[in-house]
Each structure stands twice: as C-alpha cells, then as structure tokens.
Specification:
The structure holds two protein chains of two kinds. Chain A starts with a helix and ends in a 5-residue tail after the last helix. In chain A, helix 4 runs parallel beside helix 9, helix 5 packs across helix 9 and helix 6 packs antiparallel against helix 9. Chain A is flat and about 105 Å long. Chain A is mainly alpha-helical. The longest helix of chain A is centred in the N-terminal third of the chain and has 53 residues. Chain A folds into two domains: 57 residues; 240 residues, MetI-like (MetI-like fold). Chain A has 15 helices and no strands. By secondary structure, chain B is an alpha/beta fold. Chain B has two domains: 222 residues, D-Maltodextrin-Binding Protein, domain 2 (3-Layer(aba) Sandwich); 257 residues, Periplasmic binding protein-like II (D-Maltodextrin-Binding Protein, domain 2, 3-Layer(aba) Sandwich), CATH 3.40.190.10. In chain B, helix 2 links the parallel strand 1 and strand 2. The chains are: A mainly alpha, B alpha/beta. Chains A and B meet through helix 8 and helix 14 of A and helix 1, helix 4, helix 11 and helix 18 of B.
C-alpha cells in the first residue's frame, strides 16, 4: 500500500508538475493568441475604417476588373475548341460536343506549308521587335534632352500623330506610294528605269521591310510616351550634380537618364517578348498579293483564312493556341533571364 | 464638392459600361413575324421586305417572312450565323460542301429531302435532273441546301479578248504596223484572227508609242486582266499554248482530272508571259488590282487589250474595241480552257433546325423555283419595270434594258435579289427571255470562243465527297492553292525567265498535295459518273 501510496504520491507530484507546466504554456499560448487576435482585430478595424472612408475609390477599378474578367478570362474556355470538332451553335461543354483529342493539331502540323508559315511569323515578328523596341527609347531620350520645351512638345505630337491612322488607310497609303502605278513606280518609269517600274507590293523581299517600317513609323512616337513619363521622374539634382562634375550632355543620357528608366525598359521588354508572335493579321492580310505570299503568309492569316473563312474552327483555334503557347514560353524565358541579369522581373 | 464630382464621374463610367449591353438587347426585332430569314445583301440593293416579288410570294403562299440583312463584308467576318437565335433560314448563304456537311451532320441545318412532299417544284427538278440531285447530296446522302440554277452556258467561258481597234487603226494610218503583219482597217471587226506573235508585236507598239496622243508614251496599258479573278483572268492567254488552263489550274480532260501546272506547255506559257511582262506588255497592276480597280481604270480609255466577259462594263468607249479570236500558236491551232464556275450553285439557301414550321417555310421557298418568280428574282420584279409590258409571241417575259438614266447594270443590281431560282434551257424557251446582254455575250462566246475549246476538256462538276475526302482535301488544297498562286505570280514578274529546274522543283515540293487532290477528285468524279449512269439505266 505504502509503496503504492508513495508511487501515487510521486506520480501525483509529477502529474501536478506537468499540469502546471501545461497550464502555464497554455496560458502563454492563449495570451499570445489573444494578442494576435486583438492585433488582427485592430488591423481589420483599421481596414474597415479605411474602407468606409475611402472604399468608394475602389469603384473606379471595378470596370477594369470586369473588363478583364469578361474579355480576357471568360473567353479563355474557348480554347477547348482546339480539341473539338466544333461548328458555331454547338455547346463548348455539353451535349453533342465532339471531342477529337489532338486531331486538330495533327491537321495543323501536317499542313505541307506549316514550317514556312511558322518561320514567316517568327522572322517577321522578331525583326519587328529588333527594329521597333529600341526606337522609342532612343526617341524618348533625345526628346528629353531637348532644351526647348516647345520644340519637344511639337515634335512629340508630330511623332505620335500617325498612331491614329487606321490600318486600312495606312495600307492604302502604302499602296499609293509603293504599289503598282504608285508614286515610286511612276517616278521610276518616268526616270527611264525598268518598264515595270518598282513593284514593292509584288516583291516577297520587300514585304518585311515595308511592313516593319510602316508599322514603326506609325507607332514609335506613341510608344515613346511611356518612356518620356519615366524620364520626367528623374531627379533634376542628379543632372545638376553631373553637370558640376563636368559630364557632357551625351554622358548624362547614358549615366543618368538611361539607368533611371532601365526598370521601365526591362518591364516593357518582358511584356513585348510575351507578345512577340502576335504581329496582327489584319495588316498582313491587307498587304498580301500573289507575289509576296512566300513571306507574307503567317500563322495568324492562316488561322483567318483556313479557320474562319474555311469553317475549320477547331484547326484555327489549335493554330492560335500553338501561337499563344510559344508566346507564354518566350515570356517565361524573358522574365527568368531578366531576373538573373538585372533583378527586374514581373514575378 | 470633390466627392460629388468624383461620384458623377463614376456613375458616368458605369453607364458607359452598361449601355452597350442594354442596347444589344433591344435591337433584335422581327420576332413578331412568322419567319425571320437572314439574307446576305449589299446596302445598295433594295430592302427585300418591300420588294414586290417577295410581297407576291408571301401573299400567294400566305407566309409572313421578315428579312434581315448582313452585308457580304459583315458576313465574311462572321460567316456562321447558325448559332444566332431567332433566324429560321440563311439566304445567299454560300455554304461550301464542308460547311453544309458539318452543319447537316449535327442537325444544325435541316435535311431538306425529308420535306419533299411539301415541295412539288423542287421534287420535280430532282426527278427531271439526276445530275442536280447528285450534285446537291452531302456525304450522308441528304440534301441540306436549296440551289441556284441558272443555265445559260456562259460561266464555263469567262474570258473574251478585246482589242482597241482605234489604236490598231492608228498604227495602220501611221504605217507603224509590225513587220510581217498586213491589216486593213476593214479587217478590224469582231473575230479578228491574230497569232500570238502578231498580237505580241501589236502590244509592243502599244507600249512603245504614244497611242492615246497625250504626249506620254508610258501611260498606255497594252494588255490587262485581273489575275486569278473568276472572269477576265489570264487563263486563256496561257491556254493558247495548248493547255486547258483555268484559274484553279485543275480541269477534266477525257474523264481524267488533271493539273495544268504539270503540263510542259504550261511552263512554256509562263516563260513567255514572263517575257511579255518584262517588255511591259502586261502591266504589274494585272496581278495586284481588284475587279473594281480594273473596271475603274478601264474608264480612262488607256487599255490596248483586255480579257473580260463583255467590253461594255469595262470601257467608256466599247465601240472602239473588237473581239479577237483565241490567239493561234505557231501551227495555227487555237485553244481555250474551261472554267470550274458552275451554273448549279449548291449552298444558296439553308434552313436552320431552330425553324419551328419548316414545312411552311419550305413550301414558300419552293415557289421560288417557278419560272415567273425565278425570272423576277433574277432580273427584278415585274412591277418595278424589270420586264417589258408586252410578252413576246411565245408568251415569254422580256427583260427591259431601258431604265432611263439608270444603266441596265445598276437597275439590276438594285432591284434583283437573285438567290434561289431555277432557269434552264426549258425556261429560256418557254417562260422568260435572256437579258439582251447575256444574249450578246453568249453570241460572242458561241462564235469566237467555244469552238476552240481544248479537246475533251470539261468543268469539274459539283462532286460528292465522303467525310474523310472532304477533310483531306481541305488540308492539301488550301496550301496548294497558295503555292500555285505564289509560284506563278513570282515566275511571271521576276526579272529573268523561270528555269526549267525551278518549275520542276516547285512541282516536286508540292507533289504530295498535287497527287492527293488529284486522286480525291478523280475518285469522286468516277463515283459521280457511275451514279449518273445508274440513274440513266
């Protein structure tokens, strides 16, 4: 019994000790939780107050959110069409949906001209990027270093005005200048050149330069605006300091302005790499002739003619999806590279 | 104050977002009518809802049809209104074989053959004309569309060569005729006989001299056409080398489907055309211009020669132009190809399965095939003055050419809805006369073009493909069409003539597509011939 009692006493003692520890720990935890809750409550309270006071500002962001939701996210389920034998009027998911697996992709890849169309797209877009990306940066830097505010404003308007010309009008202008019986054609004939003058619209080699330079002529001023905005944020004190140190105008562009807008440049570069394979089919389609098909038939015009006009919606969507996947891959690569090199990245 | 202003801005933004949705809902109309039919119509054509011929049709069949419209541009960008609610049929749908089959198979459009008991006229056509019945069938044996049938024997020959006789007369007067060519002014009448080399020499003079007398020797257009267009293309110029060319480069010779691009004569023609181009005899605009550009430029009076169906629509001074026989080759032989434009157009009108009372709507459309109505649909309503008051001795309607200020072309464009009709030899003989322009055209073709058809060449009829064949054709044909257009244009307009090897390698690159398209067409054609033979037995 004694032994038992003793044993009991020992165990009771130890139990008591454990209990005390437990209780103490529990109290601590409780109070900690209480603190956290109180703090949280405080934050929540603060947020609530803030929302009550300024929450209506959020209303402004709603249209944009709804826009993105309706026009960017909701239609995305449409890519399912790439795996279906689809005709308008069919349910995309529902009764009567005809799933065909990868067959549409097979049809697309087995097109004898697939590789040509792919390379045409790639070359046209990459050349457009190489020419079109640095141009607005250079223009913005030059405009920014102009002394006269008036000249700067005037030039800026002059540069971005062409942005508002519609595509059809733009191609019409190109045709009047570079096409058959166009300005250059006429001049070349009158100057006693070849009987057939200059036929840039029929020339497969002239298609890319025409497309890229006309596109950039239209858009470089517009794209420069965002860089100009970034440049206006550069602290004038930096320029003052550089001047005191005897930096030339040119030096200041490289050592003050360019580093200041570098993050903007990187961000825009990542974005445009993610959009690299989209050159826009409308202008290409408008500029197509029998003579330049060799370079002017690209994936998106194929999607339009074969998919939409030919009623092959599944194959058209598959081709579009393929294009988008390439874009996403390029975007990820660009983002990763820039993260490693410059510490600037989208995510 | 600030809050109020911001509040107003927010409200305005919201309204701007919501209004388009609200408007979209109210803009649909026509639901109170028995049937709503979508028609593809240009804006300059009068509203079908008030066209006398449609009012008569509605009255006679006691059917209430409301017409709604898309222009062809709208339709091209959204070619499948099948999913749209509240439409019972599509008129001028222009559905291809593949579209008809795909929609028919899944029941989006109705199989019209199941309603033949309501359609006496259409049934009779199918009974009388097994070739049309065969042409209309889809791979599953059903008929999914109402056709347009206008058989005048015109469409297979869409090119006539016209020459500026005033300019040639000037060459004769000035003693500038090319060496070896003796022509009197009295020779300059329709049906002028020229060899290809003589014609080329005349074009060279047109190019070198100031023919229109404005002091500028560079603005004359010696020879022009619209490359790849359905009429007035370069096909018959190429055909003169002894190859049955048409704009698809695909034809049937003695029951065999052939690609003209594989013919050595075709290559020779391209080499020669390259020479013509580099001499300035064919201007580059022939390869870039649209039909409208071509017609507009024709009004300047600077065309030396051109290919078209009729000169009257092209130039302001048609009397100055004469028809030239197909150009003869060195041995004096003449050839023209046959086009694949068919006079039975398959997908003219489809009935959607959402239509609640298709029997009645089809009975209404069936009336369209009656000769009196077909004639009015084709030329314009009787009440609008499309026909002369008096019928001719045989009791036929006679189309009226005289519309005062309006040209016959403009009148017909505004007043004739076209679409589902049935006019064949029988109707031309008993019910309605052909338009005088068509008679003129036909007359010229009979005299100056048809006799020189390449021996054994025929159009490829409306063939009945199986589902797999349709899909395979679809894969190969689109890229082949692109490649042929590209090679031919580039070969003609490049600085030097295309080498024999470059032609061979072009053929080899496309060998798979050429063979696939050829064999699918051949199989389908053999089936078509066999089916017709069965019918005849």
């Amino acid at each position: 019994m004694e032994i038992n009692d003793a044993a009991f006493a020992v165990s009771a003692e130890s139990v008591g000790a454990v209990d005390e520890e437990l209780v103490e720990r529990a109290y601590e935890e409780l109070s900690e939780a209480e603190e956290v809750r109180k703090e949280g409550n405080g934050k929540w309270q603060k947020w609530k107050e803030n929302f009550k006071r300024r929450g209506w500002i959020l209303v402004f962001i709603l249209p944009a959110l709804i826009y993105i939701l309706i026009f960017c996210y909701v239609p995305m389920y449409g890519i399912l069409v790439a795996f279906q034998d689809y005709m308008p009027g069919d349910a995309i998911i529902g009764e009567g949906t005809e799933w065909v697996g990868w067959q549409n992709f097979q049809t697309f890849f087995s097109n004898p001209n697939f590789l040509d169309y792919f390379m045409n797209t790639f070359i046209l877009c990459i050349l457009g990027f190489i020419v079109g990306f640095p141009l607005p940066i250079i223009v913005a830097l030059l405009l920014n270093s102009l002394r006269s505010k008036k000249t700067k404003k005037g030039l800026q308007i002059l540069y971005y005005a062409p942005h508002f010309i519609s595509l059809v009008v733009m191609v019409g202008m190109l045709e009047l200048i570079f096409g058959s019986d166009g300005l250059l054609d006429q001049i070349s004939i009158k100057m006693g050149g070849d009987v057939n003058g200059l036929q840039l619209f029929l020339d497969a080699d002239a298609f890319r330069p025409l497309f890229i330079f006309s596109g950039n002529w239209q858009d470089f001023g517009w794209s420069a605006i965002i860089y100009l905005a970034a440049l206006s944020g550069v602290d004038p004190a930096l320029h003052e300091a550089a001047k005191v140190d005897g930096a030339s105008r040119f030096r200041r562009i490289f050592s003050v302005d360019l580093p200041a807008i570098a993050p903007t440049i990187v961000m825009l570069m990542i974005l445009s790499v993610g959009n690299l394979m989209n050159c826009g089919y409308e202008k290409v389609l408008l500029m197509q002739t029998g003579g330049n098909l060799e370079t002017s038939e690209i994936l998106s015009t194929y999607v339009y003619t074969f998919g939409l006009l030919g009623g092959q919606y599944g194959v058209g969507t598959a081709a579009g999806l393929f294009n988008s996947v390439i874009n996403v891959v390029l975007l990820v690569i660009a983002n990763y590279t820039s993260k490693r090199i410059s510490n600037n990245s989208m995510w | 104050m600030k809050r109020i202003i911001i509040g107003i801005v927010a409200v305005v933004l919201w309204i701007a977002c919501v209004i388009p949705f609200a408007m979209g809902k109210t803009s649909s109309s026509g639901s109170e009518h028995e049937f709503t039919v979508l028609a593809i119509k240009e804006d300059n054509v009068k509203d079908y809802n008030s066209m006398p011929v449609y009012l008569d049709l509605a009255e006679e069949t006691d059917t209430d049809v409301y017409w709604t419209f898309n222009t062809s541009t709208q339709y091209a960008n959204n070619p499948d209104p099948v999913g749209i609610n509240g439409i019972d049929a599509i008129y001028h749908s222009g559905f291809s074989n593949l579209r008809l089959y795909n929609y028919g198979r899944r029941g989006s459009i109705l199989a019209i053959d199941q309603y033949l008991s309501y359609m006496p006229n259409f049934s009779k056509i199918l009974d009388d004309r097994p070739d049309i019945a065969e042409a209309l069938k889809s791979p599953d044996g059903h008929i999914y569309s109402l056709p347009r049938v206008e058989e005048m024997g015109l469409k297979a020959y869409p090119n006539i060569l016209f020459l500026n006789k005033k300019w040639v007369g000037k060459l004769i007067d000035d003693g500038q005729l090319p060496a070896g060519l003796t022509l009197e002014k009295s020779d300059l009448v329709d049906g002028l006989d020229l060899s290809r080399n003589q014609f080329k020499a005349i074009l060279q003079k047109f190019n070198d001299l100031d023919m229109d007398g404005d002091g500028d020797t560079t603005n004359e257009v010696p020879l022009t056409f619209v490359s790849g267009n359905w009429q007035g293309n370069e096909s018959d110029l190429i055909a003169s080398f002894g190859v049955p060319e048409n704009r698809e480069h695909k034809t049937i010779v003695d029951g065999k489907v052939v690609f003209t691009i594989e013919d050595e004569n075709w290559y020779n023609a391209i080499v020669e055309l390259n020479d013509w181009y580099n001499r300035g005899l064919i201007r580059s605009s022939a390869f870039t211009q649209s039909q409208d550009n071509f017609l507009a430029r024709g009004q300047d009076g600077r065309y030396g020669a051109f290919y078209w169906w009729e000169k009257e629509t092209v130039v302001a001074n048609p009397d100055d132009y004469i028809v030239v026989l197909p150009l003869s080759d060195d041995n004096g032989n003449r050839y023209v190809g046959v086009s694949n434009e068919l006079e039975v157009e398959k997908g003219e009108c489809v009935i959607l399965s959402s239509c609640e009372n298709p029997e009645k709507l089809l009975a209404y459309f069936d009336k369209f095939f009656e000769p009196e109505y077909s004639a009015q649909l084709n030329y314009g309503s009787i009440e609008s003055g499309a026909f002369l008051r008096e019928r001719d001795e045989q009791g036929r309607l006679v189309p009226n050419d005289d519309h005062g200020e309006q040209s016959a072309d403009d009148f017909r464009m505004r007043n004739a809805p076209y679409g589902v009709i049935y006019l064949t030899q029988e109707q031309w003989e008993n019910d309605v006369q052909m338009e005088s322009r068509a008679v003129l055209r036909l007359d010229r073709l009979e005299k100056y073009v048809k006799p020189y058809t390449y021996e054994g060449a025929t159009s490829i009829p409306n063939l009945n493909y199986s589902a797999e064949e349709l899909n395979e054709l679809n894969v190969y044909e689109s890229s082949l069409t692109n490649n042929m257009l590209n090679w031919m244009t580039t070969a003609i307009i490049s600085a030097g003539a295309p080498s024999y090897d470059s032609w061979q390698s072009f053929l080899n690159e496309n060998r798979k597509s050429i063979d696939a398209v050829k064999s699918i067409n051949q199989t389908a054609y053999d089936r078509y011939v066999a089916a017709l033979d069965d019918e005849n037995e």
